[in-house]
Write a structure and sequence with these properties.
Elements (H helix, E strand, L loop, with lengths): L1 H11 L9 E2 L13 E2 L1 H8 L1 H4 L3 H27 L14 H25 L9 H22 L25 H32 L5 H9 L7 H34 L11 H27 L8 H32 L2 H13 L1 H18 L3 H4 L2 H23 L1 H4 L12 H21 L8 H10 E6 L2 E6 L2 H4 L1
Antiparallel strand pairs: 1-2, 3-4
Helix pairs in contact: 1-7, 4-17, 5-6, 5-9, 5-10, 5-15, 6-7, 6-17, 7-8, 7-9, 9-10, 10-11, 10-15, 11-13, 13-15
């Protein structure tokens, strides 16, 4: 019965197995040298390998991230025992690495679903190998970002004060607090991203239902929501994606605009900037694209998916990253220029403090965020090397985290009448590193239950692209997605 059900699903998907293999075509996105003979059964076998089998690489990566996360969790328990003073914050610096981590991880989260949505709108055929990975990245990074406001409040057991719920006391929540804005924005984006991610998983969950036994079969039977692959279900899935793809873009822009307003709505020199909204949105795209490059390279290595994640994918993401790098550098320079151009003594004094007290942090930003990406991404040969692009992704995120630190810490350090300095302690650094461990742990764990490449989308791409023999030669033919929807 399981085999019959799988055949029904694949036939309704229009991807029934045939004796003739499906042939990858060369289009504007994928190169001729990477054409592969891939049948539907081969695609299922390859892309379900991470779910149905476990290799030593998966256990090694999971163990590493679990160890890093465990150390960060122990530091959090120490914070509960000793108080939030262990973060090293002092008057007037009440926001430090905790809020810098929140802004950084929120930016990483935003780009995952955003890239997937934009590529869907543009009908980019090469997106099919990447959409599921980027959407999973969004959920894991949002989970990490949402933790830091909870750490920041000190009294973690009253976290519900940040939730925008109606109350009769009219004391809490305080709707003028940036923490309320953040909680509201993250909640909306998390729900939208989850629907976007889960909707695309229904056909793949149905395939897993028919290929597993025991508790896994029960799990995937519940998760696929009775999917049978009928024409009516496919039409509704297409409509759902069309609606969410359009809606999620303004949600993305509004979320990081609100994060920028956390600082811009104040009157503190260095924070009171009208450019912060687009600056933060661009920075989120920049760090998110870097994270996508890291995930692409690690997933390709861990599951040996060389035939699915091609050098051309790295090349295309590298081009996007190069464009965003130029735009981000414009905003970065424009932020400092606007402060200098005002000739306001307080802003000039803040700039002087920034360029002297944080000169090494600024050096990291310029070198890792501008020099390295623009030098490497300008060459096609380097863009097509996966591990070089991995290094670029790491470099960009080092720069973006340093940039988040310069946004959060220096402005309140030298305010109107208050002066102070901030030096992070070992708990600050440990919980920041633990956040990386939590992200990696969640992503690695999800990879055991979720296909990281959308099987039905990949098969759809195989059928929408083909080779026609005309006049003794091979001519690539691409069918537009609207025609097959």
């Amino acid at each position: 019965m399981a085999l019959e059900e799988r055949d029904v699903i694949e036939e309704n998907m229009g991807r029934a197995e045939t004796t003739e293999p499906l042939v990858r075509a060369d289009d504007s996105a994928l190169a001729v040298s990477h054409r592969e003979e891939l049948t539907a059964s081969r695609i299922n076998s390859d892309l379900l390998s991470n779910v149905l089998s476990t290799n030593w690489r998966w256990w090694a990566v999971l163990g590493f991230f679990a160890t890093v996360f465990g150390w960060g969790a122990l530091c959090f328990v120490y914070q509960l025992w000793q108080g939030i003073g262990i973060w090293g914050m002092n008057r007037p610096i009440y926001w430090a690495l905790d809020i810098a981590n929140f802004v950084f991880w929120a930016g990483v989260a935003l780009s995952g679903t955003m890239i997937s949505a934009i590529l869907r709108l543009l009908h980019a055929g090469w997106r099919r190998s990447l959409t599921r990975m980027t959407e999973t990245l969004t959920l894991c990074a949002l989970a990490v970002a949402g933790i830091f406001p909870l750490l920041h409040i000190g009294r973690n057991w009253i976290f519900f004060y940040m939730l925008p719920y109606p109350n009769e006391r009219q004391l809490w929540p305080n709707y003028r607090s940036p923490l309320i804005w953040d909680a509201s924005a993250i909640s909306v984006y998390l729900i939208t991203s989850f629907l976007f991610w889960f909707g695309g998983l229904l056909p793949d969950f149905a395939t897993l239902r028919d290929r597993t036994l025991g508790w896994r079969r029960v799990l995937y039977t519940a998760l696929c929501l009775g999917w049978r692959g009928t024409d009516r279900e496919w039409r509704r899935l297409k409509i759902l994606f069309a609606i969410l793809t359009v809606l999620i873009i303004p949600v993305f822009v509004s979320l990081h605009t609100i994060v920028g307003w956390d600082f811009g709505m104040s009157i503190v020199p260095g924070w009171h900037e009208t450019i912060f909204a687009p600056y933060f949105v661009c920075g989120a795209l920049y760090s998110g694209c870097g994270a996508v490059l890291i995930i692409m390279c690690l997933v390709r290595w861990a599951f040996t998916w060389d035939r699915y994640i091609l050098p051309q994918h790295f090349d295309n993401i590298g081009k996007i990253q190069f464009s965003i790098a130029l735009l981000w550098f414009y905003f970065f320079g424009g932020d400092a220029w606007s402060d200098w151009f005002t000739r306001d003594p307080n802003h000039i004094y803040w700039l002087d403090y920034m360029f002297h007290g944080y000169k090494w942090v600024l050096f990291c930003i310029i070198f890792f965020g501008v020099v390295v990406p623009l030098t490497v991404l300008g060459f096609k040969k380097l863009r097509r090397m996966p591990w070089v692009m991995f290094a670029v992704g790491v470099s960009v995120n080092i720069a973006m985290f340093s940039e988040r630190v310069t946004v959060v810490v220096p402005p309140p350090a030298h305010n109107w009448l208050t002066f102070g300095n901030y030096t992070p302690g070992w708990p600050d650094l440990s919980m920041s590193i633990g956040a990386v461990g939590l992200f990696g742990f969640l992503y690695t764990l999800l990879s055991k239950f979720v296909p990281l490449i959308s099987m039905w989308e990949y098969k759809e791409g195989e059928h929408s692209e083909g080779i026609e023999h005309i006049g003794g030669g091979e001519v690539p033919v691409t069918v537009r997605e609207e025609a097959i929807a």
